[in-house]
Amino acid sequence: MGDPIQLKDEGNKHFQANEYDKAAECYTMAIKVCKDKKVLAILYRNRAACYLKKEHYAQAASDASRAIDIDASDIKALYRRCQALEKLGKLDQAFKDVQRCATIEPKNKTFLETLRRLGAEIQGKLKVQFSTDSRVQTMFDILLGDDADKDKKEKAANNLIVLAREDGGAERIFQNNGVNLLLQLIDTGKPEMILAAIRAMSGICTGHKARATAIVHMVGIEKLCSILGVDHEEIALATCNLFQCIYDSLSGKDKRDHGKEEALVLDTTKDLKAILLALLDMVINKNVSGHGRDQALNLLTKNVPRTNKKDPDHSKTLFTIDHGLKKILKVVGQVPDLPDQLPMTDNTQLIASVLLNKLYDDLRCDPERDNYREICQEYIKGKFDPKDMDKNLHAIQTVSGLLQGPFDLGNKILGMQGVMEMMVALCGSEREVDQMVAVEALIHASTKMSRATFIITNGVSLLKDIYKKTKNEKIKIRALVGLCKLGSAGGDDYSMRQFAEGSTEKLAKQCRKWLCNPNIDVRTRKWAVEGLAYLTNDADVKDDFVEDEPALKAMFELSKSTDKTILYAVACTLVNCTNSYEKKEIIPELVQLAKFSKQHVPEQHPKDKKDFIEKRVKRLLKAGVISALTCMVKADNAILTDQTKEMLARVFLALTEDPKDHGIIVAQGGGKALIPLALEGTEAGKIKASHALAKIAAIANPEIAFPGERIYEVVRPLVSLLNTERDGLQNFEALRGLTNLAALNEKLRKKIIKEKAMPEIENYMFEEHDQIRQAATECMCNMIVCKEVQERYLEEGNDKLKLLVLLCGEDDDKVQIAAAGALAMLTAAQQKICTKVTLVTAQWLEILQRLCLHDRPEVQHRGIVIVYNMINADKELAKKLIESELLEILTVIGKQEDSPMKQPAIDAARNCLVIAMNLGLIKPYS
């Protein structure tokens, strides 16, 4: 290991040479073998100095403390600990250390100055704390006082929320009995006071495990659940956010470090389980409002299933299934038209179905899925009762909910003995509510083609019978949707129509009629859109629908209503109308083979050709589809599932196909709406949304299309399209979009670098495809002003500069302009590049001459600027250039008469000649 004294001396040499890593390594080795306590104190003190230089302040403080433990009067160790503690923000402890130093050496100016400075800082900090404490008390006095001035109270509430969102302010509120005072605000029962208190609590516990734990214990989970359950949408949403902040802090999702305070919280598992159980109890509590129930389900959806399937721990899902699956099934099975049902919003049952689906998807093996299925089967069997029709209704409604959630599981349950028979029996019931539930279940059951075939043979006559006999519009429309769904079982395959010619158009006409009828309630009109979602597989129906502007506008207005369960159906309809669904590639040879072997070959409808699709897109834009889409994107994540997001992304991409339409898309907020779709959802959905963003960013002014800070969020989706797995068009449009962004400001250029786009852009500069190579070079031209990019060209051992020089010699004018522009800026910014240019390729001089002789003034100007930069950079290089044919070229251009079009090139040539003359390389002509 070596002698500790020798290692210490070696470490000192490294320290003096500013080699702090090597010095620390020597001291560490010496510490391991040193047995002399005095030497050990010096080694720890010296290593603390290394850590201070490397800005590892916690380690520096620790080593200095070890030295002080050995020798309490070690003045160097005391001062080093003082420096480290100051950097860590522990001013009072740093002050004590420097005070001891000043006591030992009272005349040391450094110690006295540090003592004075730290004293002033501590006084200032205390003053701010006292001021904050005073402000907090004043706010609570106003809020809890008898003063009826509404504006004053509103201002105090807003100030309290802002203060709670700052870490220092949150700590002062917490330390000054703030939680109890916030509870008093909640107990006033006034909505604005409750909202202020809940939002302040969210700020206090955000990212702080100790404070979050304290709030859970001081307020109590029961109390928080009672606030979440009130019939006030804004309060329910704010309390949901508070629960999320608490959950993130306790589960460690928020990674902020709070030192000793964190160590006080030993285990949060108990509290997390208590929160989950409380939320599951809320789900079936009759005293909980519909908004509260929605938020409880949303919290479960967000926090129980794994966000990353690679994470091996799915214990929360198993815990929820064991303790709450039957409770969620109870919500799904509610029949709003029956008495004594749980309070719900229009969205509650769909949110519950989404949760069921996410829980099922999170299971990892067949035994776990079998257990899930057995619980569902047992629950549904337990509800079948020949003497109680309401219980049977609940069972069938639960099956409907499962068919909207984990469909495969719902399909299996459909095969259970008695389920299909009960659905048929309910269809024949005289009670309208029975018929309604049964018809809805039939509709959901016929989602898959195999099941639809079964129902076509067994259920079409039943649905037709109900449709003809019933006088209730609600049942009539549902029966019609069932027929629509069964009629479209062949998808967009023209040859697989289930019904006779013209039948689907008649069904669609009836759906449009109901859709446009304002006298029918929203929930029933929603089913008309469901019908159109299936019927628009038929191109005749699509064409008729987009021509019916009142029907389109009625659908768009419905999509903006509070009932968000309609979103999936609207998205499906729009995907069908724009033909933006996934299309299988038709290989002619395989078609011939299929025909020869008498296999079925899908046929395209004549109205599904490109010109018809373009007309439909124009009609949708005219009817206001963009404002409807932007509203749909803002819906809650529990309703706006990944599949729905993917469909909306597909529609957006179809709408951005024609550059002429980008203006209307941007004006109605389409650019902003695409950003969340490009960042979240399925992989296919994110790619489609990113491609649509690229199309807009490539042409529109990005500052108008993506106002404010949103513009920085566009970078990541565009960079994701540079992946070699994406197709050429996506690469090209992403590069054009990034070119546009890079031209705006330095912050955007740094964001592009941060997202690791540079290697991809450089790779596409090698691309054989002319347009992609041009787009990559133009992008590099805008990025080259960034110092970090310039440094990449200065690095040794790569061909980046060689490629740029060779691209200046390309035959493609646009590539030449971009490459020459990049090289001109690069040689102006980095003089070393000028000499490096002469080494990368033997053709460099020939390429420069070609640029200077180019017939396009902009290319010629860039070439002469490069020559100017090279002459200016190095006298030897200037001599080499002037001795070549470039002198004659520059002279001819410099002697030309002034011309607005060619003036930049003429001026640049004259400047080159002036510098050459100043360097003594040429003499003035007399």
UniProtKB/TrEMBL annotation:
Domain of life: Eukaryota
Main location: cytoplasm
Domain UNC-45/Cro1/She4 central: 297-486
Entry's Gene Ontology BP terms: cell differentiation; muscle organ development
TPR repeats: 41-74
Transmembrane segments: none
Pfam families referenced in this protein's UniProt entry, alphabetically: UNC45-central (PF11701)
A GO-annotated cellular component: A band
Entry's localization field: Cytoplasm, Myofibril, Sarcomere, A band; Cytoplasm, Myofibril, Sarcomere, Z line; Cytoplasm, Perinuclear region
Keyword Nucleotide-binding tagged: no
Cytoplasm as UniProt keyword: yes
Keyword list, A-Z: Chaperone, Cytoplasm, Developmental protein, Differentiation, Myogenesis, Repeat, TPR repeat
Protein known as: Protein unc-45 homolog B
Species for this entry: Lepisosteus oculatus (Spotted gar)
Upper lineage: Eukaryota, Metazoa, Chordata, Craniata, Vertebrata
